[in-house]
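Quick note —
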Amino acid sequence: MSLAPGEYSPPLIRQARSQGGVALAMVVWFVAAMSLLVVGIVSEVRVDTRMAQTHIARAKAMAAGDGAIHLLLSRQALLREAQGTPGGTGPEPVLEAGFMLGEQPVQVRMVPVSRLLDMRSAPAEQLMNLFAGPGALQREDAQRLATAVVQLRGGGVARFAAGSKPLAVEDWLQVPGFDRALLDAVRDHLRMDAEAAYRLDAVMEYDGRRWLRRRWVTLQGGSDASGFPWRVTRTEAPRVLDDRIKTAGAR
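Predicted structure written out below.
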């Protein structure tokens, strides 16, 4: 069958080229959309993987940290039993030890709360030095905040209900000027539990980061069910340490 000479006229050729351009644009948009979809999936997988690794690290920090803390408490109990009632008038020493739990090294430090600052009874000058030193507040702001804390202890801050007293350090966050950033800056110098006699810090390295597991204990009222002569009064969630901050506690 022969074709007529004018069958493919210039308008038809331009229409074919136009349709080809639209098809090319659709292909480009489809490829771009698929690329964005793949990037989103890969990003979500990375986030999920990192979250899973973080959960594993937290679980390891809890298990290894608690085990190492119990080992140091057992060692301390044996020392107290061998030495009898501690004598002397000096401050109780800080105990430090390293343990291997499986293949995981853990360093534990046991700090008597007598070496830490109790905001419920510390004088205003010590509070001001704490807020101006580790807290990095201006001297005037530190003085103002220390005065507010002292007033709160005497019931002079209306923000708290009548007759109520702060039981945990977090309760001081209700004082104007005492925020979470300040608490994180001074927490290693504070007594965070009213019942505890010791603070125990277990530090381990995992997944390229240093993890801290912190517990507060008293040697009174141990549970018969557990068989331990001590009782945990406060347990803090595992957290990653900033190497620029010393978390060994006040000396």
